[in-house]
Design a protein that fits this description.
single chain, alpha/beta, Aspartate Aminotransferase, domain 1, Aspartate Aminotransferase, domain 2, four-stranded mixed beta sheet, binds 4'-deoxy-4'-aminopyridoxal-5'-phosphate
């Protein structure tokens, strides 16, 4: 059967069950079968193109069908497609770990590989508790996370996520985490700076640490931007205060840079803007440039040494996934890191940041655009009933879905998070395409907010 939009749509709905999707929506929302991708464009079987304004769930950094990454995978494919990483090793895994150790913040010198973001979070959570256990402190098994935080949807990662939409059906299954107020600035009082707001919110985090240090092994945060919780942004001073307090209370700091790493916030890693180094750093998504699933957890020598002993002592970190360190994914990641470390990259990223800020001005006077915020090359716009009072739309009205539909009809893949419209495009987007993307989104906002 020759594939076409129509026949793939109907065959799909016979057999597939899609992620984070109410399948009944597809009774009147057509699936979009994609035939190929090139640069910022995805193309369906009728030749219609969609500008990928969200980098296909934030994974794509250098465009679809990037020449260098494709070539790297091809070369790897001719040599070795997969070997288990227990007892064996291979060149791409070694190169990847060497590069990550060299480019991540000071002190992160050990790299544990896994194959998706949620698994990286599970690794960090388990490693933290196991460290304290190996140090004779098994009572440290709880976690502190942030309101609006999101770290994935496996049970451990979900337990330290505080976005009700993803959690509510599974609450009885989840371990009991401590939740600190988010430092994000969208709800701050008029006249309060982002920094003052972050400092204010830190007071409660500090109180939680003080009260629970004996039972808490780690605090987990998304540095600077809380992604799936609504692209909520906060001041780096919060990370500095947190780093210092974690040290004082003997609690690990886990930086989940799965969404914000690799340039998204304007620096290679968001932690750099606070000048801090976490105890555990989770990376995934952009790591392979949006080609293949891979993730890494970086940590320091002290962590590694706490597990390093005679086998009989039982201190081994017992965690594995079959595809850990898959060689094709590692080769894609090594090529991606090469592109990120190209001498011209920082300058191009800065230009994109400026261009996105300029283009986002089009939302400034819209009566239904609440806060327009930006960190690096992430821009978010709150859709609200009234821009003056910031009165939100009830989520049940699904205005975001109306934006999504309008975007598809007009050649731009926008996928708002509830009422938050956002842009996180591949870095290869041109200044003109940034304009097209934002102007289409503005018209979508207009249509979606008509009563
Ligand atoms: N952490 C963060 C900050 C994320 O944004 C995500 C994915 N949206 C994850 C963890 C989970 O990654 P994955 O979808 O690869 O499991």
């Amino acid at each position: 059967m020759i594939p076409s939009n129509n026949n793939l749509q109907s065959r799909d709905l016979e057999v597939l069950w899609h992620p984070c999707t109410q399948m009944k929506d597809h009774e009147n929302l057509p699936l979009v079968p994609i035939r190929r991708g090139k640069g910022v464009w995805l193309e369906d079987y009728s030749g219609r193109r969609y500008l990928d304004a969200i980098s296909s769930w934030w994974v794509n950094l250098f465009g679809h069908s990037n020449f260098q990454i494709t070539q790297a995978i091809r070369r790897q494919l001719d040599r070795l497609q997969q070997v288990m990483l227990a007892g064996f090793t291979h060149e791409s895994a070694v190169q990847l770990a060497e590069r990550l150790v060299a480019m991540t913040p000071e002190g992160l010198c050990r790299c544990f590989l896994t194959d998706n973001g949620s698994s990286a979070v599970e690794v960090a959570l388990k490693m933290s508790h196991h460290y304290w256990r190996n140090q004779g402190r098994p009572g440290k098994f709880r976690y502190i996370c942030l309101e609006h935080g999101y770290h994935g949807e496996t049970l451990g990662a979900l337990a330290v996520s505080a976005v009700p939409l993803y959690r509510q059906a599974y609450t009885p299954l989840l371990m009991d985490a401590l939740v600190a107020p988010s430092p994000e600035g969208s709800t701050r009082e008029a006249g309060v700076t982002l920094e003052e707001h972050a400092r204010l919110k830190f007071v409660e985090m500090e109180a939680l640490l003080e009260r629970h240090a004996a039972e808490v092994c780690a605090v987990i945060v998304e540095p600077l931007v809380q992604g799936a919780g609504g692209m909520r942004m906060y001041h780096p001073v919060y990370l500095q205060l947190l780093r210092e307090a974690c040290q004082r209370y003997q609690v690990h700091l886990i930086a989940d840079e799965i969404a914000v790493g690799f340039g998204r916030t304007g620096t290679m890693f968001a932690c750099e803007q606070a000048g801090i180094s976490p105890d555990l750093m989770c990376l995934s998504k952009g790591l392979s440039g949006g080609y293949l699933p891979i993730a890494a957890v970086l940590t320091h020598e002290d962590m590694y040494q706490a597990f390093y002993d005679d086998y009989g002592k039982g201190t081994t970190f017992m965690h594995s996934h079959s595809y850990t360190g898959n060689s094709l994914a590692c080769s894609a990641a090594v090529a991606t890191l090469g592109l990120l470390q190209d001498h011209s990259f920082a300058g191009r990223l800065e230009q994109l940041e400026t261009r996105m800020a300029q283009a986002a001005e089009c939302f400034a006077d819209h009566p239904h655009a609440g806060e327009v915020r930006q960190t690096g090359v992430i821009v978010a716009v709150e859709m609200v009933r009234d821009a003056q009072t910031r009165e939100p739309y009830p989520v049940a009205e699904r205005r975001g879905l109306a934006v999504y539909r309008y975007g598809l009809e007009h050649g731009v893949l926008l996928r708002p998070l509830g009422n938050v419209l956002y842009f996180m495009p591949p870095y290869v987007i041109t200044p003109e395409q940034v304009g097209t993307m934002m102007e289409t989104a503005l018209r979508a906002l207009h249509v979606a907010t008509k009563e």
